[in-house]
Amino acid sequence: MKSLVGLTLVAVLSGCGQNNQDTALNLINAHLIGGTVPQQGEFPASVRLLGGCTAAKVASKLILTAAHCVTDRTTGAIRASYNNGASIRIQHGTDIYSLKVVETLAHESYLNAVKAAVTGGYSPNNVGKDSYDVAFIVVSGDMRAIPEAEIDLNAVAETDPLTVGGYGCEEKLGGASPNPPRYKTGESYAVGISALKGARGSYSAAATQASIYKHNILTAGQKLNSKVPSICPGDSGGPTYRAHDHRLIVGVNSYYTFNDESGISATNWHTRLSNLKTWILDILDARGE
Asked: DSSP letter string over 191-230?
């Protein structure tokens, strides 16, 4: 089944028309600092790539994740461990699935940005500021027991409530993580480009901030609002869901910005899937089954 929400607006929260920050904040439990472990079955399509990243099943043979999870950042090519014929393992709940890679499709803009960084002699770690950090892994193997999420290609507006989650670290950048990792989620909301004010380092430039905002949905992190989650390594590739429907994916966890040295983000970045309609539709039509 092709997992896609049409380009017309899908069902929305009751009280439509009141999508403001107050509405978004009302969805947030005051105890969700860092997120919580959801109820079993609440996010049925979310999975973990054994090897570090979060992902989601979006069709019978398609897994959605971040491009940086599958790319060799020394060359800008797909990593050998995600090439045709490679074996991968994914975790869904407590179950482990062994699958074969048929093909991995990272967005060309990301691969080109990594190659440019390698050629230019600068770090490729944050090239998602200038590209779309997203990939599909086409697999063979039995994933029938894992439900599929849908890709919602409708644009995300500022203040829209969103659910952020992943299998990443739970304290701060470089902090300890449970072993084994656990899936946690939390409610946040989309913020505008002004949320990048105060971002450290190269992210302070206006042109850079415009590019970040073009390529990514931004959500508030804990340094903007202590009641919302911040993403952390291991959350990369995780699906960003509409808060009112945890089957609708609008973004993919990509990166973050910091306003201080705490290791806790002020903003979270999620690749803006609504800008990639043609690319996503082509992949779903050809490989979505």
From this structure: E-GGGGTT--GGGGSHHHHHHHHHHEEEEE-TTT-TTS--
**Would you say the C-alpha torsion 196, 201, 202, 206 has a positive or negative sign?**
positive
Decide if 35 contacts 168 (C-beta within 8 A): no
Q: What is the pLDDT of residues 74-130, one digit of tens each?
A: 999 999 999 999 999 999 999 999 999 999 999 999 999 999 999 999 989 889 999
Total domains in the fold of the chain: 1
What letters, b where the CB count within 10 A reaches 16 and e where it falls short, cover 196-232? Answer: bebbeeebeeeebbeebbebbbbbbbbbbbebbbbbb
H helix runs in the chain, sequence order: 21-26, 108-120, 206-215, 277-287
Residue 31 amino acid letter: H
Q: In 25-37, which positions are buried (b, 16+ CB within 10 angstroms) versus exposed (e)?
A: bebbeeebebbee
In a domain, 6, yes or no: no
Residue 85 neighbours by CB distance under 10 Å: 9
Residue 55: inside a domain, yes or no?
yes
Domain that holds residue 112: 16-287
